[in-house]
Amino acid sequence: MRCRTVRKFLNRYVDHELSDVKTSSSLKEHLEACFRCKTELDALLLLKGALAGKERAQAPQDFLEGLKKRLMPEPQIIRLRWVVDMGSISKRLIPVPAIVMIIMAILLFGQIDKEQAVRGEALFGLNSEELLNINF
Amino acid sequence: MEVNSEDFSLIDRFTQGDQEAFAMLVKKYQDYAFNIAYSLAGTHHGAEDIAQEAFVKVYQNISSFERKSSFSTWLYRIVINSAYNYIKRQKKYTGLEYDPQPLDARKISLERLEHKDKQDIIKRSIEKLPFKYRTVLVLKDIEGLSYFDIARVLQCSIGTVESRLSRARVMLKKILEPILRKDGQI
Fold this sequence. Notes:
The complex is a heterodimer.
Chain A: H1 3-14, H2 21-33, H3 35-52, H4 63-71, H5 75-93, H6 95-124, H7 128-132
Helix pairs in contact in A: 1-2, 1-3, 2-3
Chain B: H1 5-15, H2 19-41, H3 44-61, H4 71-94, H5 115-127, H6 131-142, H7 147-154, H8 158-182
């Protein structure tokens, strides 16, 4: 077996994925004789060993409780969202009554001015323009 | 990964409305899911987020599980997809990309390092790999899955698994080479 072929099968060899017995035994023979391929094999085994020795991380004790919370949001949160939604709607609607009130105020003051002018005419026998020109 | 009839019976109970059966499934697989997520994401906080998101997807999509593979194969696939999405989101915020730079051998010597620091170097080296190479390496060398099982999880051919694994190990060797060479291990 040539070095190139050995390198091709090296990963399978270290992973015990080489099912063909004949290929496996010729690979072993080559590795015993070839220093460079043996060095390559050692490096692979070193890496594999380092990774296999990596400590396994464990889920925290309250993992399931956290998951349950994620799956079932509390009703309070829903209610709060509803309030927030209502808030944003009310924010959008605030200018509408304000504008209506301003228009009503303008109309009301206009009406009062007219009434006052009419009252002045009645008292002094003057029209509204003459009343305005009176110099006290 | 063999088809586990106990898992299928828990899934049957869960689909019939038994919430306790779902809790049992979670308890059985939470550490597997968490460890894969941790190996891919690199932080406990990230791993918890990924693993929980994966179980939420299981909860919501259990009816679409066709039972052509084992439950664990399906779960691993969901965890890996969740991890991919999480890392993509993190990259968006942090701008971190694949960094093939070898570790600085002047500062590190594996032989002199404490066990905890060794673990940290291995973790950092894995994080330097692009996601698709990191995934096969984690599934093979940390989880100990066979090429066939990895191919089923990743929905690709065994040949693809083999070539990705080979490439991942070459990359990892390059990253760790200065340290291993300094220690005379290669």
